[in-house]
Amino acid sequence: MKLYYSPGACSLSPHIALRESGLDFELVRVDLKTKKTADGQDYMAINPAGYVPCLQLDDGRTLGEGPAILQYVADQAPDKHLAPANGSFERYRLQQWLNFIGTELHKNFSPLFMPTTSDDAKQAALQMITTRFAVPARQLEQTIYLLGQQFGLADIYLFVVLSWSGYVGVDLSPWPSLQQFMGRVGSREATQAALRAEGLVTE
């Protein structure tokens, strides 16, 4: 498999999941401005959406969108327990969290990284983000991970999105449970390996 990624982008979540899974994969860096891969391919021919992540299987098929890729990866390594079993109520709970993180957090961060976003629009996005932080913070006051005691996909996705806070000036100190969560997930071996591979940490 090949994972097409850009350092620190939302593609970091399937990258961490792949390392947690123990599956064999290759990383291919994408320049999101030129839409070229590090080996000179036209990324638009691989993923017409033009953004990361994209997972290319060994048979050439591709899969886009982070939450879909995350669940595919987890289902290839069920012994790692990154996702509850398909059809179980807990699997739908996982999808609830993936949707919440994607629509209420991830998408509200997007305007903050765009130079064309007005100051008013950025303030509105920040207000929405900080309001929504209360939801996972409340859950993580009760359990160490979003689905309880078992680390999994939702935690990986939340970790990546919360990691953007430092880049846009959002202080997590009002939510101690989120800070503690970031420490737990950030110290995992797979997380550290992914961060090193993307050049986001040096040690």
From TrEMBL:
Originating organism: Dyella ginsengisoli
Protein name: Glutathione S-transferase
Domain GST C-terminal: from-to ranges: 87-203
One Pfam family from the record: GST_N_2
Alphabetic keyword roster: Transferase
InterPro entries: Glutathione-S-Trfase_C-like, Glutathione-S-Trfase_C_sf, Glutathione_S-Trfase, Glutathione_S-Trfase_N, GST_C, Thioredoxin-like_sf
NCBIfam families assigned: PRK10542.1
Superkingdom as given in the UniProt entry: Bacteria
Start and end residues of each GST N-terminal domain: 1-81
One MF term in the entry's GO annotations: transferase activity
